[in-house]
Sequence to fold (499 residues):
Amino acid sequence: MRPDLPHTLGALRGSEYSEAKLGLRTVKDELRQNLMAKLKAGGELFPGIVGYEDSVVPQMVNAVLSRHNFILLGLRGQAKTKLIRMLTALLDEAVPYVAGSETRDNPYRPLSRQAKLTIAEMGDDTPIDWLAREQRYVEKLATPDVTIADMIGDIDPIKAARQGHNISDELTMHYGLLPRANRGIFAINELPDLAGKIQVGLFNIMQEGDVQIKGYPVRLALDVMLVFTANPEDYTARGKIITPLKDRIGSEIRTHYPASVEQGMAITQQEAWTRREKTVEVTVPQFVREVVESIAFLAREDKKIDKRSGVSQRLPISVLENAVSNAERRALKAGEKETSARVVDVFAAMPSMTGKIELEYEGELKGGESVARELIRGAVGRVFTNYYDGVDFKQIVQWFDLGGSLQLDEAAPAKSLIKELASIQGLMEKTGAVGIGPGATSAERAAAAEFILEGLYAHRRISRTEDRVFAADTKRREASAIREQGEEPRRRSAKRDYQ
Fold:
């Protein structure tokens, strides 16, 4: 904040923050004007928000330009709170207020009696303080125990007794969160969780722009922009929202999960803590990132997982962080300075998945770990198909069919792992398709080779035990033998008919 800002009302009147500029401008006007300036200048309005450029962001822009209070409706993990917090970037860098006023009164339009008395007594010598844009954002998580006193305010009998005021005097009021958010943005997360009477208490501020405290004729014409978030399931007539309150919200904006794996990966890479201190250098191959993101996409499609609850974008973020940590742990134990995240690390990250998926009845019967394991296997299969669709793996499958088996030790150093993997004919030659070239490290080559084996297992070309022993798929071989036996009589019959 600039050190040359005026600190008395007289100095303020003679500065660039004159009454002509600030006197009648509301918070919504301020947001609108600053947004218009940003739109003219070009560039990103909400840096770091991925996938909303053509859907949510334009609707938010329209709401601000319309001076609407608005609500973001979406399932968990859709960046609703992050979006509304970024609205502070549209506020002025600093705004003046009457020093000491609890409601942060505009010096040119004082709201509380305290500020009015101060200006009447001191005139141009009234002290002025300044609010930074971050101080003008107030957020409240709605819970059933929130009271009218918390939100709007209450009479403070102790203050009345100490100062000798009548109990109904405005100077005895203890202001709640909403009056204290005056001249700023007031956000309520999970709006339907507010008790009905609290929702009713918001009616006046949204329609008439004022509040009343404890039934006394004290009217506060607050200057505030209200923004809310909610889950769509709760925000219905059958849910926990009061219809008249819905009617007073200007814009209803729907958020959504990433539309593509690429968008999801961009968000996960941006949010996940993977750039760590360099005790161990952990690289994360592209195909591992794709597997992690595909888990979330498959989970959102899976019938065993509750669609109403959703699958948060925090799931792939947590899984990637946990997978990197498992790779880090392995390298530290093996004494390696660099390593690569592998599919085995994604399986090790299951504890970061199970708490983020709500299961339907069928899923409950299977259990959270079984569902998580199936999701990882399905994700590996999907990504494997993207890289190796139509590629011939007969040589590798035949190696297992002829009795070959391989147990991959999770804790083994990459160099010893490469020696074991290289014994499978044709395996290492296939790693180039996932971008692992001749100059790759042993850890990266091992990760790619393991991915191929996991992909073949996901497509039931080979089998794998929980101890990570890869072998021939006996069920597939038996089914193939049965088909061969069934086709042999037909071949003989066809030969006789030909002769």
